[in-house]
Every structure is written in structure tokens, then in C-alpha cells.
Amino acid sequence: VQLQASGGGLVQTGGSLRLSCAPSGKISGVNARGWYRQAPGKERELVATILNNGITNYEESVKGRFSVSRDNRLNSVYLQMNSLKPEDTAVYFCHQKTNYGREYWGQGTLVTVSS
């Protein structure tokens, strides 16, 4: 099973994008979904996560601008990104983790914010 992410692209400062991620098959026991990003020359960092009970967690710099959501039935996760800044430019990876400790990663989708 692979995670398939989409929705990245080029946007101007202040613009919006919505990322989507869905698995290619069934994943059982998912308890957390989320998004990470990796900018050029930097380490991968957590952007946002959402648990099955709906509790969310955000990296400090995206609070108030990004919103993570999920569809438990489809095992999908989404990231609505508003008020984008050049420093948000990165490859965004979706992530899912199961109760059994197994982790799944998407292939990455590039988000470029022009100034």
C-alpha cells in the first residue's frame, strides 16, 4: 500500500493550496495522519497531525494558517494551506501511522510560494 499525495504547485505569497492524500489500498488500524515537509537543505519537519479522535497538532509557524482534516472512511488526510509565505516552500509528505507502529509515507508533493 502506498500513500498518494496531490495538490502541490506554484502559488504567490498570500495564496492558498489544498493538499490531499489517500492510500492505494486498505490500511487497518490507522490512529494518526499528518503532513511533514522538507525544504531544500533542511531536515524534514512536522507540519500538522490529526488523531482519530480529531485532536490536532501544528508546527508553530503554520498555526492559524493551515488546517489538517481527515476522512476516516476513505483513510484520507488533507491540508488546507492559506496565507502562504515563501518560507512554506518545500516538498510536503503525507504520513499515516497505525496502532501496530507501522508507518506509511507519501511520495511528496512540491509546494512553491513565490514572493
Describe the structure in your own words.
With 115 residues, the chain is an all-beta fold. It is 0% helix and 56% strand. It has no helices and eleven strands. The strands form two sheets. Strands 2, 4, 5, 6, 9, 10 and 11 form a seven-stranded mixed β-sheet that branches. A four-stranded antiparallel β-sheet has the order 1-3-8-7, with no helix packed on it. Strand 5 (45-51) and strand 6 form a beta hairpin. The chain is globular. The termini are far apart.
* Total helical segments: 0
Mean pLDDT over the residues: 96
Quaternary assembly = single chain
Largest sheet: 7 strands, mixed
- Gyration radius, rounded: 13 Å
Helical content, roughly?
under 10%
Poorly predicted runs are: none
Q: How much of the residues is beta strand, in percent?
A: over 45%
Following the backbone from N to C, one meets helices and strands in this order, namely EEEEEEEEEEE
List how many beta strands DSSP finds. Answer: 11
| Terminal CA distance | 37 Å
Structural class: mainly beta
